[in-house]
Design goal:
Keywords: Amino-acid biosynthesis, Asparagine biosynthesis, ATP-binding, Glutamine amidotransferase, Ligase, Nucleotide-binding
EC number: 6.3.5.4
Strand order of the largest sheet: 2-3-1-9-8-11
Largest sheet: 6 strands, antiparallel
Helix content: 40-55%
Pfam family, one: GATase_7
Shape: globular
Distance between the termini: 37 Å
CATH architecture of the largest domain: 3-Layer(aba) Sandwich
Enzyme class: ligase
CATH class of the largest domain: Alpha Beta
Family: Belongs to the asparagine synthetase family.
Length: 618
């Protein structure tokens, strides 16, 4: 994995801008700590930071190859990601006359574009964001993987286009102001910590949507979708479906375990991480690669303060022990205490370039930092709940009938936290309603499907295209901030395409959430783990955390120059701070983000405003 950035300018000679592209590139150093490279021509400048995973000795970027059967013309590539079908593509390209100089997938991607042009993306199985400049025609092609695992942002203005793996690379350009407009504020205060696909928070910034590509030349820019979910009748019965799911998942995990550097799995003792770990252990045994290393995260004294509830029915610790014993992995338990978690809130903002999921981001950042000491690549169970329907809101009638995003049911409470002026300008209910309507309008309906099935298809679509990107973005930014590559097998597009069309009664085989996944894994996991009730990524239950973030927030609000004050209803927030306690539940986003996370989010917001010197164009 890596960090990429670039700049196309029709009005300026970029060969004189080496310092600028180097500055933009170096903002991504944490994503790629192993090497750095830039390339400049008159109208194009590329920068790349490399995290070496495949063929570390070669594969430097930007990578340049000549146009097939042409003289003095080149293709130039910067790329962030992994191709899991690189061996098959390489074999096909060799049969077409191409010769390889490296064993890395970067060269496979570049020669795929040389051979097939923009249509090459349809052949790729992997996670990626890349840009290719064709020198003879002076045109740029950029693409992002189908599920949006790897990020890519851009900013276009008259005569030029800038892009980067993270907004910070674009913000490093001297002509780009750190500005946010009303829409950016609405994304932060109404939608956040989620984000509407395509929106970049910063003024005039955009995110290239998942499964989309850009073609840009002197005639302008064209954005197009090369992949999207398609609805069709599902023809297999329950047993056949389970077998297909199991085969796809095993194949995907096998592909994603290929690496030239140390690899591990994240293990919580839940269904998803346990399944991937078990499949990894089987793969390692079959290929004589020794023991799999596993990592888990928890918090000091969390067992003393844990309170079971609907969204988090039990703690992970006993189940992790169960799986370690069952699989004989080399396990590394990681624990953090409250002061570390509070301090890491700011590091998480710097990684994301905006406020995020508070301590859930911060703990992941710390977790990845510890994993990086032992491994360069990790396998994670992210996305299974969105794809297979595991979250409680898939199974609750009030959530299904809410006519809004089920993770954003507290719009009125959130609106009350805003200053009257900002509330009037943003119109939170209307903004959220519009974004929800946009999402529903995209759903590929299946003709003849009854209302119950149509409702579940819509819920699945919302989760895959609106909630899952939030978690994938979090996973990428927190892990890459410490130079750790995290792979997500449940995001294999073949698996997602297949599961998308499984009828709800088969998805919930045995009247269980993710029932078909459980059935597919029979014999792979012990029955008690296989049928354990879902428990999400662990958060701290220590009352010291609430006390710490509440105290820090109130201290910041006491400063008359606090940059957060113009945007908030200070009286309301102080009331919440005065009445909240360790057991208070103020659900304002998702399943687990309540009082402590609200105060931490506002702390992150204050730090972001101050650190980035954000200016507002309203």
């Amino acid at each position: 994995m890596c960090g990429i950035t670039g700049w196309i300018d029709w009005n300026e000679d970029l060969t004189t801008q080496a310092d600028t592209i180097e500055t933009m590139t170096e903002t991504l150093e944490l994503r790629g700590p192993d090497a750095s490279g830039t390339w400049l021509s008159r109208h194009c400048a590329f920068g790349h930071r490399r995290l070496s995973v495949m063929d570390p000795a070669n594969g430097a970027q930007p990578m340049i190859r000549p146009v097939k059967n042409a003289d003095n013309h080149d293709y130039v590539l910067v790329y962030n990601g992994e191709l899991y079908n690189a061996p098959e593509l390489k074999k096909e390209l060799e049969s077409l006359g191409h010769r390889f100089r490296t064993t890395c997938d970067t060269e496979v991607l570049l020669l795929s574009y040389v051979e097939w042009g923009p249509e090459c993306v349809e052949k790729l199985n992997g996670i990626f964001a890349f840009a290719i400049w064709q020198t003879d025609e002076e045109k740029l092609f950029m693409a992002r993987d189908r599920l949006g695992v790897k990020p890519l942002f851009y900013r276009r203005e008259e005569g030029r286009l800038m892009f980067g793996s993270e907004p910070k690379a674009i913000l490093a350009h001297p002509d780009v102001p750190a500005e946010v407009d009303a829409e950016g504020l609405a994304e932060l205060f109404v939608i956040g910590p989620a984000r509407t696909p395509g929106h970049g928070i910063w003024r005039n910034f955009h995110e290239l949507k998942a499964g989309h590509c850009i073609q840009y030349d002197r005639n302008g820019m064209k954005i197009s979708a090369y992949w999207q979910l398609e609805s069709a009748e599902h023809e297999e019965d329950e047993s056949q479906t389970a077998e297909k799911v199991g085969d796809l998942l095993a194949d995907t995990v096998g592909r994603q375990l290929v690496s030239d550097v140390p690899i591990c799995t994240l293990l919580s003792g839940g269904l998803d991480s346990s399944a991937l770990t078990a499949l990894a252990v089987n793969y390692y045994r079959n290929t004589n690669q020794g023991n799999v290393h596993t990592f888990s995260v928890d918090y000091v004294d969390n067992d003393k303060h844990f309170h079971a509830h609907e969204f988090q029915p039990n703690s992970d610790a006993p189940w992790i022990t169960r799986m370690i014993s069952h699989l004989s992995t080399v396990h590394h338990p990681i624990q953090f205490d409250t002061p570390e978690l509070v301090k890491a809130l700011e590091a998480a903002v710097l990684a994301k370039d905006s406020p995020g999921m508070a301590d859930i981001d911060a703990s992941l950042y710390l977790f990845c930092r510890e994993i990086k000491k032992e491994a360069t690549v990790a396998i994670s169970g992210e996305a299974a709940d969105e794809i297979f329907g595991g979250y409680p809101w898939f199974h609750r009638e009030e959530a299904l009938k809410a006519n809004t995003f089920p993770w954003s049911l507290a719009t009125s409470m959130r609106a009350e936290l805003l200053s009257p002026e900002l509330r009037e300008q943003l119109r939170p209910h209307e903004y959220l309603s519009d974004r929800y309507s946009d999402a529903i309008a995209e759903v590929p309906e299946l003709p003849g499907e009854d209302e119950a099935h149509r409702r579940m298809r819509r819920m699945s679509y919302l989760n895959i295209t609106r909630f899952m990107p939030t978690l994938l973005d979090r996973k990428d930014r927190m892990s890459m901030a410490v130079g750790l590559e995290v792979r997500v097998p449940f995001c294999d597009h073949r698996l997602v395409e297949y599961v998308w069309n499984i009828p709800w009664e088969i998805k919930t085989a045995g009247n269980r959430e993710k029932g078909i996944l459980r059935k597919a894994l029979e014999g792979v996991l012990p029955d008690d783990v296989l049928y354990r009730k879902k428990s999400p990524y662990p958060k701290t239950h220590n009352p010291n955390y609430l006390a710490a973030v509440r105290a820090q927030l109130l201290e910041r609000l006491d400063d008359p120059n606090c940059p957060l004050l113009p945007f908030i209803n200070e009286t309301k927030i102080r009331e919440l701070a005065a009445t909240s306690d360790a057991n208070s539940h103020l659900p304002w986003f998702g399943q687990l983000m309540s009082g402590p996370q609200l105060f931490a989010y506002l702390l992150q917001m204050e730090f972001w405003l101050r650190q980035y010197k954000v200016k507002f164009v309203l």
